[in-house]
Amino acid sequence: MSEIAVRSEKNLVDRVYRSTRALILDGTYGPDEPLRLVALADQNQVSFIPVREALRMLEVERLIIAEPNKGARVAPLSMKSLEDLYLVRKVLESEAVRLAARRVDPEFIGQLRSLIGQAVSAIEAGEMESGLALHRKFHFALYELSGSEWLCNIIENLWGHSARYVKLASVQARFVCSIDDNHHAIIDCLERGDAEGAAMAMNADLGDTIELLREELAVEVFEVRSGTTSSMSMPDGEMPCSTDGD
Question: What are the structural domains, with CATH classification, of the chain?
Fold first, then answer.
């Protein structure tokens, strides 16, 4: 096979990998959903070979499960996996906050307040995708300030694995209240120069997501089994969080 042909094959594998991964993370392919070789090849307009290679890459990432004679399926969501994932996130993200706390200045604090204010407003307006993007921008602005490229790289990978859980948590009306309260707590500690307090507030933020999902994960499992879908809107009677004050 020529060098050009090899490069073309790698590009096809990467395209199938990226598109399938994105559909898993955004929930289009739900937990335990079968991933059919023929369907994936048709959707991506490729042969079976790039699809098989892409599925192997996703299996290494633990986003899918491949079983002999059964094919591949999306990895299920579970409380055990969530707690394990967030245990590692707490260790790394709290350390990134401690390192970043040494470098914050009033301008950076203002940027964080603006980002989380915009994120909360977007989520309350039902613009979940925009709100979560701003929420992510808040976090990675902070992590990048740590000065550790390795920390940022590993944290980014863990965030990818967290995406399905965050989407599930976001169906709860109190999700936005949790974001508002916890992120302002982080900012307040940073503004006071309290690095340890900021790290603890970060851990509290991650812990709240776990607590939200103790209920929601059970709902998701039921929906996958019954074939129903959940709403992303706020339940009737629920009021959005007030963003007045810090």
Answer: 3-74 (1.10.10.10), 79-226 (1.20.120.530)
